[in-house]
Amino acid sequence: MDSKSGFCSSNSIFYSKRKPLPLPPSHYIDATTFISSRSHHGRVALIDASTGRQFTYQQLWSAVEAVTSSLSNMGIRKGDVILILSPNSIYFPVVCLAVMSLGAIITTTNPLNTTREIAKQIADSKPVLAFTTSPLAPKIRGASPTLAIILMESEGDSSNTLEEMMKKEPELSRVRERVNQDDTATLLYSSGTTGPSKGVVSSHKNLIAMVQIVLARFGKEQEERGQTFICTVPMFHIYGLAVFATGLLSLGSTIVVLSKFEMHDMLSSIEKFRASILPLVPPILVAMLNNADAIKSKYDLSSLHTVLSGGAPLSKEVTEGFVEKYPNVAILQGYGLTESSGVGASTDSLEESRKYGTAGLLSSSTEAMIVDTETAKPLPVNRTGELWLRGPTIMKGYFSNEEATTSTLTSDGWLKTGDVCYIDSDGFVFIVDRLKELIKYKGYQVPPAELEALLLTHPAILDAAVIPYPHKEAGQIPMAYVVRKAESNIAEKQVMDFIAGQVASYKRIRKVAFISSIPKNPSGKILRKDLVKLATSKL
């Protein structure tokens, strides 16, 4: 093996240059027990940014135990699926950790999703219980009228709330089912490249390995001076769930939770709570760069020393510009998928981040192959192909979807990421393009096929294709190319309004062009690259 790149020429595998992960020797351990058993000196676990309410670590684990006991008394058992539909909240980790400690399975959904989208996920995952908030409860009732609901906040004299469950004394004599590391812990939905999203089945071992990577990345500094993280990224997404609802709690860090992203709230929370680390998506980082002078004159960000960026690589101009405007703040980047428990590669120092355009070095205990997209042969250093990953964080498969599982996971454990990459002679991963055609709008994934299927239901539309269109603030926006039916004069606004009434706001089409025919290959597949070229040729 070449120690510089991590590439082994005898088997064409790239090996991680980071220290290997120590996984628990006991097979019978769940992710919650693993996280709660880590020793640290942290005191405050979670703070609600808007109310100031907080959980100490002692209160957090008491609450988790009480909720676990209540769920057990309600008949929740190992293998049952529990849905969470909620904005970010200090209660979100309590539910996740309690459910996983029983061996039950967490599935999450985006609060912006429509009742129709939620109904599809419920029909697929078949939850036995849902945790939600009062404003969002009608969506669940509309999606599944018979599904039992527990509200996450107190309301009137209702006793069926999470807050009431947290007050009860746990029954220490309850029967505990043995949970092993291969049991399913989470069922998160990832936008598929074609058609509907798919349930990603992740095990307790996957989450424990992910937590170990978080520990290795931030543990040393936490021990030396403690850390306060700002949580603006959504907890229903693998990024938020991995980092905030599980990973950082094993460190003893303090997590300041914002229910939704708002620039002023985020910046004033950094100042108020003396936050040191800010995870975000690239559009927010770009906004902080573009408005740096106004921000620095209004907010005291002197406590902030690290920004974590994920979702898309940052350009040299953005990285250098940010460091110039915020000289005391290091930018760290990361790459991961729901299918890899949110990890895969990262830069762990500003020096590593200065390899411009890189997603970083492979995560601990992670192996990679770069595979030629035409011949399926593995490629050496500095050659571009599809990135395959293998390691302890890789999912078990897609829920009830054998066809999708076998086309994404090989028999010997390789995950085909769908990202076109190369690994350089120093072992750094560079993402070049997506085989998967997802549009990344403000960090959210938008599958073009879903929007195309909806467009084709309009009586005035003959054919349609949806592509990513570059956008300064959002990263990309969904743009539709539409072929009108004969005698139709449907306009741009009508197309956008038609979709807006059926999907979550982040999936809305924001630009429309009319075309005489959609370019396709002989097998009928849309030639999106041709349309992207056409759309961007006028930029």
Specify Rg, calculated over alpha carbons: 23 Å
The CATH superfamily of the largest domain turns out to be ANL, N-terminal domain
Low-confidence spans: none
* CATH fold-level topology of the largest domain: Rossmann fold
Main pleated sheet: 12 strands, mixed
Helical element count?
A: 17
Beta percentage is 25-35%
Number of domains: 3
Distance separating the two termini: 45 Å
Count every beta strand, where a strand is a DSSP E run of 2 or more residues. 28
CATH class of the largest domain: Alpha Beta
The helix content, as a percent range, equals 25-40%
Mean pLDDT: 91
Blueprint of the fold:
Layout: E1 7-8, E2 13-15, H1 31-36, E3 44-48, E4 54-56, H2 57-73, E5 81-85, H3 92-101, E6 105-109, H4 115-125, E7 129-132, H5 137-143, E8 149-151, H6 162-167, E9 184-190, E10 198-203, H7 204-225, E11 228-231, H8 238-246, E12 254-257, H9 263-273, E13 277-280, H10 282-290, H11 292-298, E14 306-310, H12 316-325, E15 330-336, E16 344-346, H13 350-353, E17 358-362, E18 367-371, E19 378-379, E20 385-390, E21 397-398, H14 402-408, E22 415-423, E23 428-434, E24 439-441, E25 444-446, H15 448-455, E26 461-471, E27 475-484, H16 492-500, E28 511-514, H17 528-536
Parallel strand pairs: 3-12, 5-6, 5-7, 7-8, 11-12, 13-14, 14-15, 27-28
Antiparallel strand pairs: 1-2, 2-18, 3-4, 9-10, 10-21, 15-16, 16-17, 17-23, 18-19, 18-20, 20-22, 22-23, 24-25, 26-27
Helix pairs in contact: 2-3, 3-8, 4-5, 10-12
